[in-house]
Write the structure tokens for this entry.
Amino acid sequence: MTALARVQDVRGGLRAATGWRRVAVLTLAGMASVLAFAPVFLWSILFLTLPILAWAITQPTPEAASRDGIERAFKDGWWFGFGYFFAGLFWVGEAFLVEADVFGWLLPFAVTLLPAGLALFLGAAAAVTRALWRPGLAGILVMAIVFTAAEWLRGHILTGFPWNTIGYALTATDVQMQTAGLIGIYGLTLWAFVIFPSPLVLATEAPKATSSLAAFAPGLALAIVPLALSALYGAYVLSNAPSPDANAPRVRIVQPSVPQREKWLPEKQGEIFRLHLDLTARNAAGESDGMDGIALVVWPEAAMPFRPLEHPEALTAIADLLPDDGPVLLSGGLRVERDGTEAAPTLRAFNSLLAFDGAGKPITIYDKIHLVPFGEYLPFQPALEAIGLQQLTRLRGGFASGPSPRPLLRLPGLPPITGLICYEAIFPGAVVQAAERPGLIVNITNDGWFGNTTGPPQHLHQSRVRAVEEGVPLIRAANNGISAMIDANGRLQATLGLNARGVIDQPIPPAVDAPIYARWGEWALVLNIVFFSLLIAWFRHVKSGRKTSK
């Protein structure tokens, strides 16, 4: 049996499957697709799983775009999506175990309802693809456009959640990652839906091929040529990357590795604060160095488990720690604004990035804009509180969102800084919102909620891609890891792994000239979609011309 015959048998078996067997195959294919991302990076798995999706949703029926066929395509896409998001987001359930006595009962709902909701995007994309599908390359291009649109919508509707967008499979190495600077993660997603399904899908749609080689050749070319061009471009970019500047300001990134179960215990507040002070006073070798040569110290999200601006003794301790002419401290912290009247005061709480000078005075503040639903605020709060739900932070009323657009932080002796708190780093195109380009991105986070799962390494990897898209170095300070210094090409200069305690001392890497994506944004994606659409129109014109000539 030839290779082509084997592939056709697999396709035939899938299309013949019904009931639980079909559901199992599609769900497992979706789950296996997650191996393409951090920390495994087995991106070649998509050469198997995306053809399974394509074969299922384009299964012929008596009428190519019949209602039954479209409904079945939706279900097939949904089951694939459910497996994909269930395996990719299972770590969300860890957050409900931090206070298991209060939130543990919600865990089964969190790890099933979130994937079920996100899978609707892939189900809808599958249905539209089925309605527009034509055999051959035109069909592959249609699938790429439709599924990329679904991924874009997933990243924007209802605050958006663009975690594990398929395009990240094409950023597994430093070399591959550089193409994100051209077309962004959604542009890579568009090409991923061309590259990975093409070899097997096009081979099974080549009835006139005289051999297996002839059947596989077009699809292999569609996969190999873009991958090779991406590799050549990435190698060129990295070979021309700027050298580190020995005189660049040095940064100390502090990773305290405080267990999440202890972080908000009132009796632990002082101990946790002193831990941050003690770690800051010592270099990466654990030696007390007076922070000689350090221009910036970065603590993680909500590093101080209290409202620091309301604790003068904490500000005094910061002043005692920092030399008068020494570094600025950037720290996560909670703060409250009081509005209303004395008789009827209202409080607004913010998850903030606070900058302190050598006198312990706050000199600038960034308030988190993109809040985590159910974590930092509760959608439809009155209705959900009535049935006993509350956000994981247990802050009544939740956090307020900071003013938009995101401001630049200007600190003495440092380049302009864009601050990102927690998962704000996963939103492509939304990192830099000021008119002026920053010279540094600082991302503070607390991934301690998610334990030793795939969540933290995936979060780190997506932050690296943001650095490439913007051409700006990125500092990542995480409570329990993974903290890192990342250069403007997304390369890791230094890291502290999960649950490690210590500091990173590194000079700030240089920024690079603004990449195309940083200048054009999603217009690069739009141009690719226009190109694909013109190809589809041309293929259909040629096909209709052949029919007319007959």
The two ends are 35 Å apart (CA to CA). The longest strand covers residues 328-340.
